[in-house]
Amino acid sequence: LRVRVKIAPGATAQVAFATMIATTHEDILGLADKYHDPAAYERASSLAWTHAQVQLHYLGIDHGEAHLYQQLANTLLYHDAALRPSQRTLQSNTLPLSGLWRLGISGDRPILLARIDDVDDRGLLRQLLTAHEYWNLKGLAVDLVLLNDQAVTYAPGVQEHLQNLVRDAESRASGDRQAVRGGVYVVRGDGLAADERVLLHTAARAVVASAQGNLVEQLLR
């Protein structure tokens, strides 16, 4: 990466470099030829910006919401303790990760757990489903688990409502269906044993709750 640059008094210079990965020596030389011109960065940057605008328009979100979903993705990727259960809860888990299989959850992907005890609060649900589709578009596969914590009296109707929301979101999903995508799971809280509930919270890299406000409020808190 060593480059010698001579700069006259009062003048400025701009240096650009690219890092690339390829499977063969010939491919990497081809990429080097393609991007050796500094103007290639401007072209790639412009195309990336345009592609991002198309994605935002498709999802119906603005840059602020996209940034919010990126912040939440950070907590999923880097094990931020701020949105995880207490250490006491984590230490009380007695089940292996395979205990999630009964729920249809593999445990192979990062898990975002959302406790839903107020299904009328559509704001958080919309944000979570939109964030999930945004991550899929970006190639980040996350399993979103909606834990239905409504009272048993209302559970059947709430469960059906949540499943309809998930089906609607999945029907709008686009992109390569063969690509690795995260799933959305609706789990009834009254159908979980106490140790399964602890496992689900332990396995999740982030836990949010409808009773604690929207994503902005919970991330700030």
What does the model show?
- This protein is of the alpha/beta class and 221 residues long.
- The protein has 8 helices and 4 strands, in the order H-H-H-H-E-H-E-H-E-H-E-H.
- The chain has a 4-stranded parallel beta sheet with strand order 3-2-1-4, with helices on both faces.
- Helix 5 links the parallel strand 1 (111-116) and strand 2 (143-148).
- It is elongated, with a radius of gyration of 22 Å.
Brief summary:
With 221 residues, this protein is an alpha/beta fold.
SSE inventory with pairings:
Layout: H1 25-35, H2 39-59, H3 63-77, H4 87-91, E1 111-116, H5 122-137, E2 143-148, H6 155-172, E3 184-188, H7 194-203, E4 206-209, H8 215-220
Tell me, briefly, the overall form: elongated
Give the distance, in angstroms, between the N- and C-terminal Cα atoms.
43 Å
| Proportion of beta-strand residues | 5-15%
Parts with pLDDT < 50 across at least 5 consecutive residues: none
Across the major sheet, the strand order is: 3-2-1-4
DSSP E strands, number: 4
Helix content: 40-55%
Largest sheet: 4 strands, parallel
Query: Order of helices and strands, N to C?
Result: HHHHEHEHEHEH
Overall pLDDT metric: 85
Strand pairing plus helix content: what structural class? alpha/beta
Number of helices: 8
Q: What would you report as the Rg, rounded to the nearest angstrom?
A: 22 Å
Please tag this protein with its features.
221 residues; alpha/beta; four-stranded parallel beta sheet; 4 strands; elongated
